[in-house]
Amino acid sequence: MRLDKFLADGGFGTRKEVKRLIKSGAAAVNGVTEKDAGRNVSGSDNVTVNGKSAVSREFVYIMMNKPQGYVSATEDKHYPVVTELLDESYKRFAPSPVGRLDIDTEGLLLLTNDGALNHRLTSPSKNVYKTYFAMLDNEAEDKDAETFAGGMEFKDFTAKSARLTICENRREVFIEIAEGKFHQVKRMCARVGKNVEYLKRVAIGPLELDESLLPGEYRELDEKELELLKNC
Ligand code: URA
């Protein structure tokens, strides 16, 4: 197989991107830098990119700062979907969003084709807490934090004990919930008489949003982040 195809299949970018990568001298075959994208490689060759093994991979794990105006889905009849923001080299893996953020919610959204991890992170029984930053239309009160801590009954589900942390100006709060039901944060805030004016997810379990990502930007998880998620 051609080296550029080998690397594109391995998720290192589109054919055009990997050609550029190879030209830059980042790829090596059996320890020798290879700048010829058409060089033939086989399974017995040791192909590396920037010194790291370039074996084809099965899964992709992407952290996105979801922008407002996009639906957390792979297709939708009326609105743009988050997967449209991905480069072709990632679309090839057919990743799906892990859980859902409302169309007007920003922040940490994971996308992966690893169904087992997706299930584990979204299953309420696994108790993976998600942290949101919210701007409320009214000041939060200390008694609201107690109401959140006691859990809440809704007609379609019971929210487990949740943590409400009130910032100094009291209209800004952090909310940690174990589930991720439809409009859950907004509904819990409404229960204590507040409307959410702005909502952003900042963490899933131990994984925090990389604040250097602007809305609409994304990057792959690094090994440490992936370990954190797999072990949480
Ligand atoms: N809760 C909400 O109300 N909206 C979201 O997007 C996520 C959690």
Automatic annotation (TrEMBL):
Q: Name one GO molecular function term.
A: RNA binding
The UniProt similarity line reads: Belongs to the pseudouridine synthase RsuA family.
BP terms from Gene Ontology:
enzyme-directed rRNA pseudouridine synthesis
**Entry-linked InterPro entries:** PsdUridine_s_RsuA/RluB/E/F_cat, PsdUridine_synth_cat_dom_sf, PsdUridine_synth_RsuA/RluA, PsdUridine_synth_RsuA/RluB/E/F, PsdUridine_synth_RsuA/RluB_CS, RsuA_PseudoU_synthase, S4_RNA-bd, S4_RNA-bd_sf
Keyword annotations for this protein, in alphabetical order, are: Isomerase, RNA-binding
Give the Gene3D superfamilies listed for this entry: Alpha-L RNA-binding motif (3.30.70.1560), Pseudouridine synthase I, catalytic domain, N-terminal subdomain (3.30.70.580), RNA-binding S4 domain (3.10.290.10)
Does this UniProt record's set of keywords contain Cell membrane?
A: no
Which residue windows are transmembrane per the record?
none
Tell me yes or no: is RNA-binding among this UniProt entry's keywords.
yes
EC number(s)? 5.4.99.-
Which residue intervals define the domain RNA-binding S4 in the entry?
1-60
Query: What top-tier enzyme class does this entry carry?
Result: isomerase
Q: What is this protein called?
A: Pseudouridine synthase
